[in-house]
Amino acid sequence: MHLALSLHEAVEMIPDGARVMLSGFMGVGCPDGLVHALAKAGKRDLTMIVNDAARPATGVGPLVAAGCVRKFIGSHIGVNPDLQARMQRGEIEVELVPQGTFVERIRAAGMGLGGVLTPTGLGTRVAEGKQTVEVEGRTYLLEPPLRADFALIAARSCDYVGNLTYMLSATNFNPIMALAGETVIAEPEEIVPVGVIPPDAVKTPGILVDHIIKRTA
Amino acid sequence: MMQDVMTMDPKEIIARRVALEIRPRTLVNLGIGIPTLVSDHLDPALGVFFQSENGVVGLGHRPPEGMTDRHLTDAGGTFTSAVPGASIIDSAFSFGLIRGGHLDLTVLGGLQVDAKGHLANWMIPGKFVPGMGGAMDLVTGAKSVIVAMIHTAKGQSKVVPECTLPLTSQRRVDLIVTELAVMRPMDDGLHLLETGPGVSLETVLDQTEATLIVPDNVPQMDLSRTI
């Protein structure tokens, strides 16, 4: 498989029912081209692992609106009435995870850890049915790793070997999710020759990236 | 000064009072809504850095018209800017700051706070489920937690004997600031520290469903004070 794919080719790889990690925070740092292509392709029964449901037209919103999503795993759905309505009708199952736990579970999956111990959620609904562990006199919730078949990443720059940089608050979940997807597809804003991105500036090494979305002229 | 204060918007009263709690050279996280207003009342010379969960340490004000950029937003998804000396971190690092004891203060809104200092601010079962976002991590992990909210909602007190809504954390918050009162939950109950500008003790007691521990003399908020 070539490193560079068209949006169409990338979407062809993702089957109905796939578990898909989507980066972004309120749609910022989200690979919008991939989202729209998936929605247009009419995918079904996707499990979307994404921090928030954004607003209906941003982030994961278009996939929700197109009826592609069966399950949503994330921390916030408050400003997407479309997803709220679908949840109430039973069309979409929602698993709410505290944001810090959400990102640590993804990090655990990507870094080969069997889960994380966090104080967040203790004594709340989040703790229901979960194991607690005591370490050095403190109690923690055991939260399992969260992994995905695909991780969809939005990068600022990408070079020919797939090294990625991010920009400002569009960084958010991108470098973490790039570790936790079985297949990692990055949609960069620009593609530059090898060497343009200094090694110190690379936030996701290209060896983690399976595919780059081609730039259309 | 009091004339000015008497005509102030309730939200501004809360924001101005909370601002007096912020110490120089600290890291502070402000929630959506009233808490966001707090930074307007701080002298930039204090060297306070504002964090937003989405990975900014050193959040600035809204950029000039036409200068917004979609790569730089706050935790509400609103365009923002960054102050000189700001830094950008990813979401794991951002919540590491929050849980790891590096965040000095968080100011959050609330649906209910109870006499034990428990906060509920992420869902109303059967009505509205926005989700907790970063609130559970913030309340659990910040060194200090201030709840900043309007005292009542639809005529109902939001300061209650025991939260009926799902809790955000089992951690006791440190201070509750409304337009009517400043309250501190402690082991023996909820202490009334101050009343709002021009607000009588009777009004506070009438509007508060939780039992308050009231000292002999309750001062009014002094909003003319600076840090």
Automatic annotation (TrEMBL), chain A:
SMART domains per the UniProt record, alphabetical: CoA_trans
PANTHER family in alphabetical order: ACETATE COA-TRANSFERASE SUBUNIT ALPHA, KETOACID-COENZYME A TRANSFERASE
Top-level taxon of the source organism: Bacteria
Keywords of this entry: Transferase
Pfam family, one: CoA_trans
MF terms in GO: CoA-transferase activity
Protein name per the record: Acetyl-CoA--acetoacetyl-CoA transferase subunit alpha
From TrEMBL, chain B:
Region forming the signal peptide: none
Superkingdom of this protein's organism: Bacteria
GO molecular function, one term: CoA-transferase activity
Keywords: Transferase
Record-linked SUPFAM superfamilies: NagB/RpiA/CoA transferase-like
SMART domains, alphabetized: CoA_trans
Family in the record: Belongs to the 3-oxoacid CoA-transferase subunit B family.
Protein name per the record: Succinyl-CoA--3-ketoacid-CoA transferase
Organism this protein belongs to: Salipiger pallidus
